[in-house]
Write a structure and sequence with these properties.
Elements: H1 2-21, H2 28-31, H3 34-40, E1 46-51, E2 56-63, E3 77-80, H4 99-105, E4 110-112, E5 123-124, H5 139-158, E6 163-168, H6 170-181, E7 189-195, H7 215-226, E8 229-230, H8 235-244, H9 252-264, H10 276-282, E9 287-288, H11 289-301, H12 311-318, E10 335-339, H13 348-356, E11 361-366, H14 376-379, H15 383-398, H16 425-428, H17 434-446, H18 459-475
Parallel strand pairs: 3-4, 3-6, 6-7, 7-10, 10-11
Antiparallel strand pairs: 1-2, 2-4, 2-5, 8-9
């Protein structure tokens, strides 16, 4: 029996070596860090450390100017990646196609953010990433701590009062959290670009949706195994990604089908398989399990809301038995949307619902290719023509000193006022009015709030609303 086991181990080892030998040659961009990749392609690269109010140390990467030109435009650009990703997403597609390089070559000062818990931001002033306390965060904390700290740092270093913000997937979600919870940051944003925006996710059809019923069990298991970390990048994951998912590896087809298509949407035309080893060399970059649980809650509740701790802790944290919804009417920064029909993470129905709840919209752009998926916004073969040229044109318009954003009136604006304003439920339970308050609160939540169209009803009220936004915009100091 021992001899049979020994021979089986030898066979397994030989198969593993054969798999490695059949893989592609060394691909530098699959193993180098983001700053080194940027330098390898001939661009200037800087690394900055931003400390958040709650003690996390975030690594931010900068491309201050293009390869052959040092032209500086009026406002810097900040790019924020999606879930379990990193700043690498913006450069993986190479100098000719990746957005970060294109922005730099067009004269922009480019800053690439890294959210807490990923490959580049696994440090805290007092907490160890081996502790559960370190991983006790979701995209809520990224929105109220990470983004404000990074934005303030970028504006201070560039001596500017505003910047452009471009977010992909959860990178847009974090922005909506920030501007709803800390509305003063709206005035620090010259324009915001949302690529495959995520906030409402109840129409999501990705394979990740099948994990929602097991969210609690996954959280318990992950807390036990990894202290609350989710898919952190380590030596083992890099080995698997490099040798089992390379372009010519035996399992390449399975990697493409189950890692890319089942999670993000099938696109055999635009997805560049040659990038897969590089993509998997940097992804997943890791996040917290709590971040995934937060998204799972939103799939179940169909709301864009704060984290649900359960009734008792909700009362302690929010003074409510339920978590408050994010008030999107606070998000008055000028925003442009880009979305795709075949995006099974940012479903078009969810994207349109989100767009309808934002008061200051520059336009919603559907990609004119039916197979375009969630990661095509980063890795598509023709992403420049399909997306980035339009994004760049929006930024060029905003460069003019007298630019005033034009609100999109073609889509109905959902002005529903059902964002939860929590009263003191603990005291209400002790008063004679407690029961009546519960009844009226229930009735209010069941009311249907109509959509208002800027072009039809309540014209005077909407004109006043637009006038208020424009006045606030004009009173903001620009360089």
């Amino acid at each position: 029996m021992k001899m049979i086991l020994f021979f089986n181990l030898i066979i397994f080892f030989n198969v593993f070596i054969a798999t490695i030998s059949s893989s592609n040659a060394y691909i530098p961009d699959a193993s180098l860090s983001v700053p080194k990749i940027i330098k390898r392609h001939g661009y200037p690269s800087e690394t900055h450390i931003v400390d958040t109010k709650d003690g996390y140390l975030l690594e931010v990467h900068r491309i201050p100017h293009g390869k052959n030109i040092k032209q500086y435009r009026n406002f810097p650009v900040f790019l924020q990646h999606g879930v379990v990703a990193s700043s690498a997403d913006w450069i993986i597609n190479g100098p000719k196609k990746a957005l970060a390089y294109q922005l730099a070559d067009n004269g922009f000062d480019v800053w690439l953010g890294n959210s807490r818990g990923n490959t580049y931001s696994r440090t805290h002033k007092s907490l160890s990433p081996d502790s559960e306390e370190f991983w006790n965060f979701s995209f809520h904390e990224m929105g109220i701590y990470d983004l404000p700290a990074t934005i303030d740092y970028v504006l201070e270093r560039t001596n500017r009062s505003q910047l452009y913000y471009i977010g992909h997937s959860m990178g847009s979600c974090m922005f909506f959290v920030m501007c709803s919870m800390r509305p003063e940051y709206n005035y620090k944003i010259r324009a915001q670009i949302s690529l495959a925006p995520v906030a409402y996710v109840h129409h999501m059809t990705s394979v990740l949706n099948s994990l929602v019923p097991y969210a609690t069990q996954i959280q318990k298991a992950s807390n036990w195994v990894s202290k609350g970390a989710f898919l952190p990048q380590n030596a083992a994951s890099k080995l698997v990604n490099k040798y089992l998912c390379g372009d010519n590896a035996m399992n390449s087809a399975l990697c493409k089908k189950y890692i890319v298509y089942k999670m993000f949407g099938e696109d055999s035309v635009q997805f560049d398989m040659a990038l897969l080893p590089i993509i998997l060399g940097h992804n997943p970059a890791g996040t917290s399990v709590k971040t995934l649980i937060h998204f799972a809650q939103e799939i179940t509740t169909k709301n864009f809301q704060q984290f649900d701790f359960g009734i008792e802790k909700n009362l302690e944290v929010y003074n409510c038995s339920h978590p408050p919804k994010y008030n999107l009417s606070n998000v008055i920064a000028p925003i442009a949307f880009y979305y795709a029909k075949n995006d099974i993470l940012a479903d078009p129905l969810d994207v349109v619902e989100l767009y309808s709840r934002l008061p200051n919209r520059l336009g919603i752009n559907l990609i004119k290719f039916d197979q375009f998926n969630h990661v095509d916004f980063l890795y598509s073969k023709n992403v420049t023509e399909m997306v980035y040229q339009s994004v760049m044109n929006t930024l060029f318009k905003a460069e003019f000193a007298d630019w005033i954003p034009e609100i999109d009136n073609t889509t109905a604006f959902n002005v529903s006022s059902d964002y939860n304003q929590c009263y003191d439920e603990r005291n209400a339970r002790k008063t004679k009015n407690g029961f009546w308050q519960k009844i009226t609160s229930f009735i209010k939540r069941k009311e249907v709030y109509p959509l208002k169209n800027y072009m039809v009803e309540d014209h005077e009220e909407n004109v006043r609303s637009r006038h208020t936004i424009k006045n606030a915009w004009n009173q903001t100091h620009f360089e």
